[in-house]
Design goal:
single chain, alpha/beta
């Protein structure tokens, strides 16, 4: 375990999930990510009365099937950290846990360069600042009917979002009313049948990405692509 992994685990347990003494914690992981699970477990044991780890398959549809077939698997726990290769949030078990107002952190650990997610610097972001910035972005999104995304690599997409409400993740479960993801992002559901334009699937440029929200009010800003874990 590296010092940066330990630092990341400490942030997740103490600042994002805010594990308490009375919590019964479950860390869901795979054999490939047992080092991260161990780091999280060590930090959780400093706070919680009960910490358990559930090891599942790394990849494939069998992981999702297991959590769909065992919908009540999270019922005995008060805090669940889904530290698996990919997100579990769309499974029946995760949805049930969120509906029951359990603490649930989606922590997919797949990265582009093989480094541990717990070592990434985005974990150090000021969550209070991210909350303030997110509220500003969401203000414009609420008054917009569409979002126009362009990049230097050639992506030119128009997303329509009439009557769709935005939200944000910054890892902190309290900000997400009990549920969050390991990304720092503002999101908005789009109208599924009205997307237009083209996208370059290999668009990994670090150049600024221009984004414009337009309707009766318009705003334009530039945001930098960050090399970080994709959201759930």
């Amino acid at each position: 375990m590296t010092p940066n992994m330990e630092r990341g685990a400490r942030i997740i347990i103490h600042e994002w999930v805010r594990v308490k003494a009375w919590d019964k914690v479950l860390i869901v992981t795979s054999k490939e990510h047992q080092a991260e699970a161990k780091a999280l477990e060590m930090q959780a044991r400093k706070k919680a009365r009960s910490v358990n780890t559930l090891i599942v398959e790394n990849k494939g549809r069998h992981v999702g099937i297991f959590f769909d077939d065992n919908e009540a698997v999270f019922d005995p726990y008060t805090a669940i950290i889904a530290a698996t290769e990919y997100s579990l949030v769309t499974t029946k078990a995760a949805k049930r846990a969120i509906q029951k107002h359990k603490k649930f952190l989606s922590l997919p650990l797949s990265t582009n360069d093989g480094r541990s997610l717990l070592e990434f610097d985005f974990l150090l972001m000021d969550t209070k600042k991210s909350r303030m910035m997110a509220k500003l972005f969401m203000k414009y999104l609420r008054s917009s009917g569409k979002v126009h995304v362009t990049t230097p690599a050639g992506t030119d997409m128009m997303f329509y979002k009439e009557n769709r409400n935005p939200g944000f993740f910054n890892g902190v479960l309290r900000d997400g009313k009990g549920y969050s993801s390991s990304s720092i992002e503002v999101y908005v559901p789009i109208e599924e049948t009205k997307t237009e334009g083209i996208t370059d699937r290999w668009d990994t440029s670090d150049e600024p990405m221009s984004r414009r929200e337009s309707s009766s009010r318009a705003a334009e800003s530039s945001i930098s692509r960050r090399h970080r874990q994709a959201s759930a």
